[in-house]
Each structure stands twice: as C-alpha cells, then as structure tokens.
C-alpha cells in the first residue's frame, strides 16, 4: 500500500506561514527573474490565473484584482520542504521524496498493526495531515492506494473534493472504480499531452477507460512496457516500489543549473560569465555527491517575446576525455561549447549547463590509451585538483556562497550589477536559514 503526500500550493503556503494575513487572499509566486506564475492560491485560481502565464501579460489583472505577488524564494521553500519530509520520514517506515512538495509513503503491512487500536490507514493519513500542518504550517492532502499511480490519482481527488477532508483511501474495488471515473485521462500520472490527445482520439476519455484496455493495446499504442505498467497500476497491480530519495540517499543521474538572465544579453562575455556561475554551482553539487561528470551540455535560449523574439534554444554536448568535477576544467569546456553555439548579434535570455554520465572517483572509464605512466601523472594532478576544490568548497561553506569563485563568473570590472543576475522584486526573507532574517517578536 502506498500513500502520496502533496503540499497544497506549496510556494504560496510557505509565504503564508510567515504572513498569516495572506490567508483567504489571492496570492501568486513568480518564477526566477519574476518571469511567470508558478504557484497560485485557491483564490488566485478562482480569478482565472493560469500556471505559466508570463507576468507582464497578467500584470494589470493582478493589480486590478489586488493579487499579492511574490518572487520565488527557493532557499525558504527548500528548508520548509526539508521539515515536511523529515516529519514524514520519522512517522512512516519508508519515504520517497518525489519532488520539493510531494512524497510517496510506504504503508505496506501497516494496517494490520494499526487496527484496532489506532484506526485504519485513513486515520493514519489524517494524523499525518494534521501533524504536518501543526509542525510546519503547510497544508497537505494525502492519497492512499495499492499502487503509486492510484495514490497520485487519489491525492488529486482529495485536493479537489472538500468533502473528503484532504484524504482519500482507495481501499476497495468499488471505490477505485469510482475514483477512476472521476479523472480525465490527460490527468493520469504518466500520460503526457501528446498521449492524452491520442487516447482521446481513440475514445479513451477517463482513467477508467484507460484501465480497461488490454496489455497488448497498451504496449502497442502507449509506449511499450511503460504503457503496460501504467495500465496495470491503474488496475491495482503495483509495478514499482519506492525509489531512493533526494534526502542524501539518492545519487542523481545528472546535475543541472540554469537561469533566466536579469536582462537580455548580447555580449558573449556576459553570457560566458553566467555560464561560469552556473558551472560553479553545478560542480559544487557534483562534488557534494562525490561524483565526476563525463558529459557536459551547454544550452542558450532566445526570448519568445519582444522584437528580438527567436523562441528557441540551441545546445551543444561534449564527452569529456577524462571525467572531472573540477570547476576550472568544466568552465573551460563550457566556454568551448559556447563558442560553437554563439551567433553574433543574437540576444539571449537564458542559459544553462547539464552534467551527466556521472561516475564515482576511482571507478571511471579510462581512455583508450590510458597507460600506466600518464595515469600516474594524472593521479597526481587529480589529487591537487581535489585539494583545491575541497578548499574552495570549504571557504564558500564557511564564509558564504560565492566568497571564492573564478574570475570568469564575476561581474564587470569596477563593480556594478552583474548583468545576468535575475530580478526578484518581491522576494521575502530567508526566515529559517539566515540569522539576520529571523522574525522579531515585539
């Protein structure tokens, strides 16, 4: 049996924890650089505001409707998420942190121990809901079902139907049949937009319709074995268990860092500066995980709006001859890739790096001609690199991120604002992670 705990309007809820006056008022949170809406309160949804809508397109409506607007504050959201996940992890046998605001729970075999003293899984889910709210101030809903796909579906219904009091337990075939009939096929976890169109065209409109197709049909028209597993999960047969979580037990398969610039950039040096900063951030995460990257990808994007609209991204990929987590080496390679992508005169609004092909130190693939002598010399260099990166990380951890960084990632000579730094006009303080931002009670 699985549970899915999903925080309601998570980013908005985090803001409301420290500003209770926002309860009952329309609130939205904007993405990096105050670009578009990424979180809405129920009141904002009722006004017709959509996820992903660019801020400049709805600015007048937000002002007219007196909607409270916030810039995203990921430091705060990440810490609040950690508190929610910590409580869940201390309460149930197993947790898979699926995203910053969602977690799957392993509830297998619990019911027989709960009954008759502590009720059933519905009672447990309610206790979790109340417990998270009491400890963090974050409202959540809980779906419980025999499979992860059904748990997602149950959670969705628990959010939409106020009569369910935030919890739905699909504990019988009748209840599962009812739930499947309530959800459009496009809202089933794992069904993307393209497959939703295909399924609707084939007369499959709801999750119930999809659960009745044959395994052979699913294999043929729904992505092979992935589609077959999806249908089996809807039928109540679990095809996947909990995966390792990002709470320190998960080794990520790739690490990325990307941002929208504070203003459109035409200068190659400015874009390279942004990429250098992104490489430094991603390499720091790479070293924290204890891995080396074998594949580096760089992408740059033009704006979809305005007179210079191009609306597309270009990317370049490089397989490194020797895996590394050295910020200097990765920055140099990123500069090479940028040279392949750069179009003189073009205007760019976003860039990013992705590090993949992650390998543990000592276990990396050797080059074809990696004989003993070069390897020994390389080992010495690798040792010095590791020491330098360890010193870099140590200084930044002690004195603050960005205390020591490559010159390429610094701003223009003589000071002044860094051109790629994003805008955050309405960002709230980091209430829980920075001493100077602690709330003061008078």
Automatic annotation (TrEMBL):
One GO cellular component, as annotated: cytosol
Any single GO BP term: SOS response
Keywords (A to Z) from UniProt: DNA damage, DNA repair, SOS mutagenesis, SOS response
GO MF, one annotated term: damaged DNA binding
Domain spans labelled UmuC: 2-192
Transmembrane segments: none
Keyword DNA damage: yes
Residues in coiled coil: none
Family: Belongs to the DNA polymerase type-Y family.
Entry protein name: UmuC domain-containing protein
């Amino acid at each position: 049996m699985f549970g899915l705990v999903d925080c309601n309007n998570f980013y908005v809820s985090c803001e409301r924890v420290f500003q209770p006056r926002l309860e009952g008022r329309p609130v939205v949170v904007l993405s990096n650089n105050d670009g578009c809406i990424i979180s809405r309160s129920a009141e904002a949804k009722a006004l017709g505001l959509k996820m992903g809508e660019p801020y400049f397109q709805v600015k007048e409506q937000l002002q007219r409707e007196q909607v409270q607007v916030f810039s995203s504050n990921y430091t705060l959201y990440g810490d609040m998420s950690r508190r929610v996940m910590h409580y869940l992890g201390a309460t149930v046998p197993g947790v898979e942190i699926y995203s910053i605001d969602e977690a799957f729970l392993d509830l297998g075999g619990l019911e027989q121990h709960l009954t008759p003293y502590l009720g059933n899984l519905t009672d447990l889910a309610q206790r979790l809901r109340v417990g998270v709210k009491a400890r963090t101030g974050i409202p959540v809903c809980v779906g419980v079902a025999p499979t992860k796909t059904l748990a997602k579906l149950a959670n969705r219904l628990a959010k939409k139907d106020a009569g369910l009091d935030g919890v739905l337990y699909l504990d019988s075939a009748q209840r599962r049949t009812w739930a499947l009939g309530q959800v459009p096929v496009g809202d089933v976890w794992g069904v993307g937009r393209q497959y939703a169109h295909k399924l609707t065209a084939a007369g499959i409109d709801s999750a119930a319709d999809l659960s009745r197709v044959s395994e052979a049909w699913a294999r043929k028209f729904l992505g092979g074995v992935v589609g077959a597993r999806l249908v089996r999960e809807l039928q109540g047969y679990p095809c996947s268990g909990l995966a390792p979580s990002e709470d320190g037990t998960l080794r990520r398969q790739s690490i990325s860092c990307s941002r929208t610039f504070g203003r459109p950039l035409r200068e190659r040096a400015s874009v390279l500066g942004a990429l250098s900063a992104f490489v430094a951030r991603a390499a720091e995460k790479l070293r924290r995980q204890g891995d080396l990257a074998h594949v580096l990808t760089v992408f740059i994007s033009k704006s979809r709006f305005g007179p210079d609209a191009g609306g597309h991204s270009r990317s370049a990929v490089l397989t490194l001859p020797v895996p590394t987590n050295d910020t200097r080496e990765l920055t140099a390679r990123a500069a090479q890739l940028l040279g392949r992508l750069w179009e003189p005169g073009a205007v760019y609004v976003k860039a990013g790096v992705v590090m993949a092909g992650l390998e543990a130190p000592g276990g990396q693939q050797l080059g074809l001609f990696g004989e003993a002598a070069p390897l020994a010399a390389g080992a010495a260099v690798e040792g010095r690199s590791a020491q330098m990166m360890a010193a870099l990380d140590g200084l930044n951890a002690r004195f603050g991120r960005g205390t020591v960084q490559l010159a390429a990632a610094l701003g223009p000579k003589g000071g002044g604002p860094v051109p790629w730094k994003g805008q955050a006009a309405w960002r709230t303080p980091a209430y829980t992670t920075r001493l100077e931002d602690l709330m003061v009670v008078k």
